[in-house]
Design a protein that fits this description.
Blueprint (H helix, E strand, L loop, with lengths): L5 E9 L10 E10 L2 E10 L8 H7 L3 H4 L11 H8 L4 E3 L2 H14 L10 E3 H8 L7 H7 L12 H15 L5 E4 L11 E4 L13 H11 L14
Parallel strand pairs: 1-4, 4-5
Antiparallel strand pairs: 1-2, 2-3, 6-7
């Protein structure tokens, strides 16, 4: 049986840029992927950071201090426990993963929880830089490269960005129209190599002879009234 690869596309919004200082997470968004494709399962929550949101964050996200009043703190089980359960032991896919990893692990340490080890993280920024050296590699730039719509992204948001990231990650892994090479015999999504399937410039000439068509027609006539094969007569 083919093993299914489960991953989590993940994004955070924060009060500022310094996870090692006083800045905190104000929003998390996560999208479940199976074999690089979103399943529709998501996790999204805004969080009370117990401090002011920077003007730059408000400008980028539109999230103000007033919008976070009454939101749960990160250590609330509906945040930390639910998020850890959602992630599980699956790889965590993030764009510029060091940023999100730093903030998430800092919050987990404050809660007395174990960090999510660096080996569990997948950085799409690193993948994009290796695949397209010298080209712009921001999430916006990659969305434009892959013709992923940005109409809904007037402001940054953790869930929307993780959904866009999921689409970008799928394209970086070969896209929706991809073929699988199971030469190693495993058939595992971890080891399968992906390549984009290309359409033939012109269809191949038919290989069925007139005699074969006649014999096929005669055979189908013996199958009774309206057999399924009659739908595929040449």
């Amino acid at each position: 049986m083919t093993t299914q690869l489960r991953e989590i596309a993940f994004d955070t919004e924060t009060t500022g840029l310094h996870w090692a200082g006083d800045d905190r997470i104000i929003e998390v968004g996560a999208v479940e992927l199976i074999n690089h494709v979103p399943t529709g399962r998501t996790f999204h929550q805004r969080i009370n950071p117990r401090r002011k949101v920077s003007e730059k964050t408000i400008e980028i996200t539109g999230i103000t201090d007033d919008m976070l009043v009454g939101m749960p703190f990160f250590e609330d089980p509906q945040i930390v426990d639910a998020l850890l359960e959602f992630i599980g032991d699956s790889p965590v896919v993030a764009h510029n993963a060091a940023f999100d990893r730093g903030f998430l692990n800092a919050e987990l340490i404050r809660c007395g929880k174990a960090e999510i080890h660096i080996d569990q993280w997948v950085d799409t920024l690193d993948i994009a830089k290796k695949r397209y050296p010298g080209a712009p590699a921001s999430l916006d730039a990659l969305c434009k490269r892959f013709n992923i719509g940005l109409e809904a992204r007037t402001l940054h948001g953790a869930l929307l960005d993780s959904q866009l990231l999921a689409e970008v990650y799928l394209e970086l892994r070969g896209g929706r129209a991809r073929s699988f090479d199971f030469a190693d015999g495993s058939g595992d999504g971890d080891t399968a190599r992906f390549r984009t399937a290309k359409q033939r410039p012109a269809p191949l000439d038919p290989r069925v002879t007139e005699i074969e068509i006649e014999r096929h027609t005669a055979f189908v006539a013996t199958l009774g009234e309206n057999p399924i094969w009659s739908r595929y007569q040449p």
